[in-house]
Amino acid sequence: MSTLDTRPPRALRGTRRGDVTAYVVLSVCALVTIAPFLLSLMTAVKTPQQFAAQTSLAPPHPVTGGNFSTLFGGQYDFVTPVVVTAQVVGVILVGQLFFSVLAAYAFARLDFPGRDALFWVYLATLMVPQIVTIIPLYAMFAAAGLRNTFWALVLPQVFGSPYAIFLLREYFRGIPEDLISAARLDGCNTMQVLRYVVVPVSRPILATLAVITVVSHWNNFLWPLVITSGPTWQTLTLATANLQSQYNGNWTLVMAATTVAVVPLLVIFLVFQRHVVRSITITGFK
C-alpha cells in the first residue's frame, strides 16, 4: 500500500515563498523608514557626554530627560516657537479647508464661462517652484509693513492652494448628481448643498487634506526664515535650526527638538488614519 504525498502543491509552495519574500521586503523597508526616528529618539535621551563617548547606535544608559528640560527652560524657551507654530498652522488649516472647499465646488459643479480654462491655468502654478515667488512675496509684505508679523506667516497660504483645490475638485466630481439634485429639490441653495450634502460625504478627503496641510506647514522652513527675524515669531523649524551654529553643535538638543516636532504629527496621523485610508480607497454612495 503506497503512502500518500502530503507535500503541498507546487503552486501553493510558490505562493508561500512569494508571501515570505514580500513580508521580508516590507519589513526591511519599514525598518529603513523607522530607523531615523528611533535614532533621533535615542539621541534625544542621551547626555552630551554619552553621545560623544558612544557610537550613535548605542542605546542610552541611563536614559535622561535633561535635553527636554533644557529646551523648555529659560535658556532656549522652546514653548514660544511651539505656540507660534501651532497658531500659524491652525489659522492656515481653517483657511485652507474653507476656501478650498468653496473653490473646488465651484470648479466641480458650477457652470460659468471659462471655468475649465481658469482651473487649468490655476493648476499650472503647481509647476512654479516656491523659490521663484519668495522674493516678490517678500517685497509685497515688506512694502505693506507686514514683515516679521503673524499675518506675514499665514496670508500667503490661508486662501487655499492649487493642490488642495485639485484634490477636492476630483473628489467632488465623483459625488452622484442625484444627491445634489435631491437637495435642491428640497429647497437647498448652493451653500446649504455644501453644508448638508457635499461636506458630510467628503469627510475622508477633508481629513486627508487636513493632515497634509498640517504636516506641510508644521515643517515649513523657507518662508518663515525669509519673512521673520528675532524670536518673537520664530517657528519650530527655525528654533531647531538655531540650536546649531558654526561654533556649537549640540546634537542631543537638536534631536530632542526634532522629537518634539515629530510627536504632534504622529498623534494627528494616528487620530485621522482611518479617514486617510478611506480617502484613498474606492468608495460608493448609497
Automatic annotation (TrEMBL):
Residue ranges occupied by any ABC transmembrane type-1 domain in the UniProt entry: 82-272
Pfam families named among the record's database cross-references: BPD_transp_1 (PF00528)
Localization terms from the record: Cell membrane
Source organism superkingdom: Bacteria
Topology term for the membrane: Multi-pass membrane protein
UniProtKB keywords: Cell membrane, Membrane, Transmembrane, Transmembrane helix, Transport
Membrane-spanning segments: 20-39, 78-107, 119-144, 150-172, 193-215, 251-272
InterPro entries: MetI-like, MetI-like_sf
Family indicated by similarity: Belongs to the binding-protein-dependent transport system permease family.
UniProt-recorded name of the protein: Carbohydrate ABC transporter permease
Annotated organism of origin: Angustibacter luteus
